[in-house]
């Protein structure tokens, strides 16, 4: 056999073995969203919002519009609990327009929205939010799968479906686990797919988005399941930020043993719970009221801010990356 033929056989055999070894996992679906021509990317992140405008949802939306205009944002990320109390029933459920299309009306917000589902979306019909038909109702609404990647060149956003991780939800008959159960297989596959995607990622910034917090000083606090299962993957692969909702507050926490930042943007509507938990990580900023987060990224710098319902920048910070180390540090 000629050397070239031999090589081909070896490659084919290796590929077949890989397929057999990992039958149920697959590459996470991805959306390509190129950054601006000037090499920057501007994004807003909001969570826990869909309440027909109530609980200051409309005020948050207006300020997102203002800030979005100034920053010329490229897209919006939703950290989940998109529609209260129980998601939507189908793609023509009027709640969808009442809580999304009719609220985020500003010109600057007419960009793709990349979304994860929260526990409140799961007690309705979670598949309706993933159905491409929803984009006939509002073309912005882009949840192409329960977990997927938004690839923006120098930044990769890994959107992870965290609701199935939370054990006690599995005792609640309101949750719709179609396409999810059994839990163990589903979670094993998510973690495998995420590890693979993080390993393959060439992006300078690796940002993971989920609904539930890993480390939090607000009402819900830490999530044991995510601390045990998801956090080690994030640390092992040098993830820069974990962005979540679920706690209805704005919060920045620095990990004590890695460069990971835990960022909560869950102030899209109902807030002011007045409940706090202890976390031994370093709480850099915590606001119990409504608002959202902005980020402007370049290959070497990240500028982030939290805004309240009046458009005040409550907390601004920066991260820089040295190309050699590939690690972020506080600017
Ligand atoms: C709306 O926001 C204002 C300003 O933060 C706050 O005083 C008020 O309590 C909020 N309303 C609700 C329903 O949370
Ligand atoms: C969709 O859901 C709404 C709200 O529950 C309901 O009124 C409507 O009949 C449903 N439409 C279809 C086509 O099932
Ligand atoms: C789920 O329910 C079972 C039976 O009531 C109980 O033993 C178990 O502790 C519950 N699990 C969680 C995580 O709540
Ligand atoms: C909360 O999570 C963080 C990050 O894993 C951890 O350092 C801390 O010990 C946890 N705190 C509690 C009270 O579980």
From TrEMBL:
<dbReference type="InterPro" id="IPR004843">
    <property type="entry name" value="Calcineurin-like_PHP"/>
</dbReference>
<dbReference type="Pfam" id="PF00149">
    <property type="entry name" value="Metallophos"/>
</dbReference>
<feature type="binding site">
    <location>
        <position position="81"/>
    </location>
    <ligand>
        <name>Fe cation 1</name>
    </ligand>
</feature>
<protein>
    <recommendedName>
        <fullName>Purple acid phosphatase</fullName>
        <ecNumber>3.1.3.2</ecNumber>
    </recommendedName>
</protein>
<feature type="binding site">
    <location>
        <position position="248"/>
    </location>
    <ligand>
        <name>Fe cation 1</name>
    </ligand>
</feature>
<keyword id="KW-0325">Glycoprotein</keyword>
<keyword id="KW-0408">Iron</keyword>
<dbReference type="InterPro" id="IPR024927">
    <property type="entry name" value="Acid_PPase"/>
</dbReference>
<keyword id="KW-0732">Signal</keyword>
<keyword id="KW-0964">Secreted</keyword>
<feature type="binding site">
    <location>
        <position position="84"/>
    </location>
    <ligand>
        <name>Fe cation 1</name>
    </ligand>
</feature>
<feature type="binding site">
    <location>
        <position position="119"/>
    </location>
    <ligand>
        <name>Fe cation 2</name>
    </ligand>
</feature>
<feature type="binding site">
    <location>
        <position position="81"/>
    </location>
    <ligand>
        <name>Fe cation 2</name>
    </ligand>
</feature>
<feature type="domain" description="Calcineurin-like phosphoesterase">
    <location>
        <begin position="43"/>
        <end position="249"/>
    </location>
</feature>
<dbReference type="InterPro" id="IPR029052">
    <property type="entry name" value="Metallo-depent_PP-like"/>
</dbReference>
<dbReference type="GO" id="GO:0005576">
    <property type="term" value="C:extracellular region"/>
</dbReference>
<keyword id="KW-0862">Zinc</keyword>
<feature type="binding site">
    <location>
        <position position="211"/>
    </location>
    <ligand>
        <name>Fe cation 2</name>
    </ligand>
</feature>
<dbReference type="GO" id="GO:0003993">
    <property type="term" value="F:acid phosphatase activity"/>
</dbReference>
<feature type="signal peptide">
    <location>
        <begin position="1"/>
        <end position="26"/>
    </location>
</feature>
<keyword id="KW-0479">Metal-binding</keyword>
<feature type="binding site">
    <location>
        <position position="246"/>
    </location>
    <ligand>
        <name>Fe cation 2</name>
    </ligand>
</feature>
<keyword id="KW-0378">Hydrolase</keyword>
<dbReference type="GO" id="GO:0046872">
    <property type="term" value="F:metal ion binding"/>
</dbReference>
<comment type="similarity">
    <text>Belongs to the metallophosphoesterase superfamily. Purple acid phosphatase family.</text>
</comment>
<dbReference type="InterPro" id="IPR051558">
    <property type="entry name" value="Metallophosphoesterase_PAP"/>
</dbReference>
<feature type="binding site">
    <location>
        <position position="48"/>
    </location>
    <ligand>
        <name>Fe cation 1</name>
    </ligand>
</feature>
